[in-house]
């Protein structure tokens, strides 16, 4: 028999959580056609044959929390997620997206995405090719795009509210019964056309560029439950949200949020997936929330905390931002250097410039100056990221501790470090999931049967965060390298980002290596898999910048039986497609 693809002698980690086994694998018509004993398919006729001796073969990873809503219109690869074994992404999270939309609201939706997800508005304006108004039309537009990997999307609350209510919706005014009925109708229409779910945001941290919270932040229960009932009526779709208090901005909010989420999941039978993170203000709250969700899940109520594989933190440095970013002499040097990093480093090495910057305070009322000051006050929680990147640093490796050990003033020490590596050095400032300088809470979250791995935010926060590599991190750190605590077995790590995430969104045709399943696969040199340091690129439309992180060790990433990346490089194959639910 002739096959599209044959993989021989691979160590199969099949996505079920079962023990690895060695086998040959064959693919026909985008599906796994055969699993055989090692060597049995070695001489089978095939368009492509991969010898996976000594390599691990996994299902393709399903990343349920991305923000490629704009990028998808210009980037068929959806970098950087594809570099980390991801073969299916779900976008439209956190209540932001680009449909439904009227022509006069396009720029407003771009401003909403820019503010919430830190994607340059100029890049979105230059890159998005608008060809829709309604959500079904948006899906049809996506359906015609050339793609390397599969994409599913959700109906975003922010866009729906603005579409139905105009400025009242954008300004978070209360919705009338008529408004709610129209919103529920539009959401059901989107689900029945193929959306994988509905998303909303209730955290005060998520704001548009004009400072307004995301539409829906203060939505009352009648609005939320009407939309949840629309999912139930359609018989499909996940209700995804960034809940109030997720960033520690309101310590009383999480319990209130969990109450209505539990009732909504129980009433509708639809999965409610909410972000769960540890924050320093109440570092043990996550345990109570996880336990409550876990008891509901065990009782058959589909409440699923969405968790991250590592701390959520900022990457600071000369190319992103730092405590000196808004000091007058620094601003003058940066303006003169423009995009020339070498010229900026040279200017900052000037002793007089250095002396001036260290002696100054921020320009009054500078945008983001508070964030820069916050970073400066947290040098005891800021670390050199390094190569390989260290995401579980010990407290005695902080910049404050290193400066003290060197007998130097902390800001002078930091200033000189910023100029290292030609100004490309990056520093890791954990904000969430690292209250006690340990990943042990993250491990508990990952191991919980109710949890779903997400929150990587691929495509978003491109100026200061780069967590789309969470899938690779699960393999390297959790399944192989962790030195400061217990690890996670490789089969479980793979299951958490394949079968578990696929099943949660109803994508039961993938996520497992078995005959008849979709042939989305990774062939990985597990022993030599390596996460590379993030680096700044200027490859967004209009030359806008973003942090990107690659990996070494993915020998092949396969979508529907076609190799889309070989050793991390684009093969030119475009077998990816829009994944529609509800049909």
Automatic annotation (TrEMBL):
<protein>
    <submittedName>
        <fullName>Amidohydrolase family protein</fullName>
    </submittedName>
</protein>
<dbReference type="InterPro" id="IPR013108">
    <property type="entry name" value="Amidohydro_3"/>
</dbReference>
<dbReference type="Pfam" id="PF07969">
    <property type="entry name" value="Amidohydro_3"/>
</dbReference>
<dbReference type="InterPro" id="IPR011059">
    <property type="entry name" value="Metal-dep_hydrolase_composite"/>
</dbReference>
<feature type="domain" description="Amidohydrolase 3">
    <location>
        <begin position="49"/>
        <end position="564"/>
    </location>
</feature>
<dbReference type="InterPro" id="IPR032466">
    <property type="entry name" value="Metal_Hydrolase"/>
</dbReference>
<dbReference type="InterPro" id="IPR050378">
    <property type="entry name" value="Metallo-dep_Hydrolases_sf"/>
</dbReference>
């Amino acid at each position: 028999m002739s096959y599209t693809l044959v993989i021989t002698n691979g160590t199969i980690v099949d996505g079920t959580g079962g023990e690895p086994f060695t086998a040959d694998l064959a693919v026909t018509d985008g599906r796994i056609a055969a699993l055989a004993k090692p060597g049995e398919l070695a001489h089978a006729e095939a368009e492509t044959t991969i010898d996976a001796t000594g390599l691990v073969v996994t299902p393709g990873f399903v990343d349920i929390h991305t923000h490629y809503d704009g990028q998808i219109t210009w980037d068929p690869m959806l970098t950087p997620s594809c570099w980390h074994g991801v073969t299916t992404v779900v976008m439209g999270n956190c209540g932001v997206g680009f449909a439904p939309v009227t022509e006069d609201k396009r720029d407003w939706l771009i401003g909403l995405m820019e503010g919430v997800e830190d994607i340059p508005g100029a890049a979105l304006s230059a890159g998005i090719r608008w060809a829709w108004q309604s959500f079904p039309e948006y899906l049809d537009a996506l359906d015609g795009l050339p793609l390397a990997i599969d994409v599913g999307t959700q109906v975003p609350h922010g866009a729906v509210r603005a579409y139905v209510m105009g400025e009242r919706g954008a300004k978070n005014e209360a919705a009338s019964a008529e408004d709610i009925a129209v919103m529920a109708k539009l959401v059901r229409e989107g689900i029945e056309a193929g959306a994988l779910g509905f998303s909303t945001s209730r955290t005060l941290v998520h704001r548009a560029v004009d400072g307004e919270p995301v539409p829906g932040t203060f939505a009352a229960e009648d609005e939320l439950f009407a939309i949840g009932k629309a999912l139930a009526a359609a018989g499909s779709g996940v209700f995804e949200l960034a809940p109030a208090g997720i960033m520690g901005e309101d310590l009383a909010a999480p319990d209130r949020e969990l109450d209505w989420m539990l009732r909504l999941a129980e009433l509708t039978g639809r999965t409610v997936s909410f972000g769960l993170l540890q924050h320093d203000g109440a570092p043990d709250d996550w345990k109570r929330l996880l336990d409550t969700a876990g008891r509901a899940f065990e009782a058959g109520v589909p409440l699923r905390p969405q968790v991250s594989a590592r701390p959520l933190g900022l990457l600071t440095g000369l190319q992103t931002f730092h405590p000196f970013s808004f000091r007058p002499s620094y601003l003058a040097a940066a303006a003169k250097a423009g995009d020339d990093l070498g010229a900026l480093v040279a200017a900052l090495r000037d002793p007089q410039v250095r002396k001036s910057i260290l002696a100054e305070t921020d320009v009054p009322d500078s945008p983001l100056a508070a964030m820069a000051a916050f970073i400066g006050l947290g040098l005891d929680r800021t670390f050199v990221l390094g190569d390989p990147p260290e995401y579980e640093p010990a407290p005695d490796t902080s910049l404050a501790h290193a400066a003290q050990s060197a007998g130097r003033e902390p800001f002078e020490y930091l200033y000189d470090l910023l100029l290292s590596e030609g100004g490309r050095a990056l520093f890791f400032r954990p904000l969430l999931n690292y209250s006690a300088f340990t990943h042990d809470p993250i491990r508990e979250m990952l191991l919980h049967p109710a949890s779903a791995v997400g929150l990587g935010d691929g495509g978003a926060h491109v100026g200061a965060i780069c967590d789309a590599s969470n899938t690779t991190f699960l393999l390297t750190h959790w399944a192989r390298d962790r030195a400061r605590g217990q690890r996670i077995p490789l089969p479980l790590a793979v299951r958490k980002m394949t079968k578990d995430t696929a099943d949660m969104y109803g994508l039961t045709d993938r996520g497992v290596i078995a005959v008849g399943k979709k042939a989305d696969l990774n062939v990985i040199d597990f022993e030599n898999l390596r996460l590379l340091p993030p680096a700044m690129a200027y490859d967004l439309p209009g030359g806008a910048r973003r942090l990107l992180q690659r990996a070494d060790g993915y020998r092949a990433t396969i979508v529907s039986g076609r190799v889309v990346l070989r050793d991390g490089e684009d093969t030119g194959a475009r077998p990816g497609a829009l994944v529609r639910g509800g049909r």
